[in-house]
Amino acid sequence: MEFRQLNTFITVADLNSFTRAAYILGYTQPTVTSQIRLLESELGVRLFERIRKNISLTHEGEKFLVYSRQIINMCEEAKNTVKHQSVPKGVLTIGAFESLCTTRIQGILKELYSEYPGIEIILKTIKSTEYKKLLLDNQIDVAFCLDRMITSSDFIVELAISEPLALLVEPNHPLAKSLRVYPQNIVDYTLILAEKDCSYRKTIMTILSDCGLTPKSIMEIGSIQAIKQLAISGLGIILLPKITVEEELSKRQLVELNWCGPSFDFFTQVICHKDKWMSPSLLTLLNMTKLILPMQHCQK
User: Fold this and answer.
1) Torsions phi, psi of 140, nearest 5?
2) Alpha-carbon gap, residue 266 to 148, rounded angstroms
3) Which tens digits make up the pLDDT trace of 156-179?
4) CATH of domain 1-83
5) Where are the beta strands (DSSP E) in 110-189?
6) pLDDT of 76-126, one tens digit each?
7) What CATH class is the domain 85-163+266-300?
């Protein structure tokens, strides 16, 4: 088993493609295929299912991927411990909520790429139920999440910034001009919400449940953009981070309800595992984040 084989395996798994992995790694596709087959032969298991032109990890492949990442990360740690790097470089895997990928993070990544071209970023869109496991399994180096304050002793919150949520409707909605909107006022209308495991949805549903209320109708949608468009069409009430609807608010396509119920205490948080080795690349990202995110917040 060679490190290059492990690196090839991880790249193929991340990209779900032998062809794209070969391009990224600078190999020919037969070389990538050969390395994976040699690895499978040594392990005595299939790491990938190959059905027509599609590939996916087998159950054994998923388990082996966790250990492969740990081995590669430890090797990088060992090299960087004894080798001084004047300019940070290497691969960083970032997990981020969809709502942050197109708002808070893009400015950070643009600055990082500009100043440190040697740092390669793998950005994964994750759900609110995933980031803890991904950090524990060392599948991501850092998580950018938008949630209630994290208090687990397994993680270090490197940065936390208050991030308001908003209940929104199109301007002609019956509640749009209400001076005060309470939980009992919204249950007679359709709520357009994300999937059941979404932290925003859990929050509003908990508030209603604590008040002994049940929504008349719930429309479940998996995309933030789709949620916004349905609300603009007048189909119901939505709850989203305010940063994701700034354009729609400025154009008066949506208006914020004057919510007088329990507060939505959410924070954009940058989280690492407590035992994560802080490589020069990761430290560079965290330092840049701590500089840029507060500035973004003050400009709103």
Assistant:
1) -135, 150
2) 5
3) 999 999 989 999 999 999 999 999
4) 1.10.10.10
5) 119-126, 142-147, 155-162, 165-169
6) 777 766 565 567 888 899 999 988 887 888 889 999 989 999 899 999 988
7) alpha beta
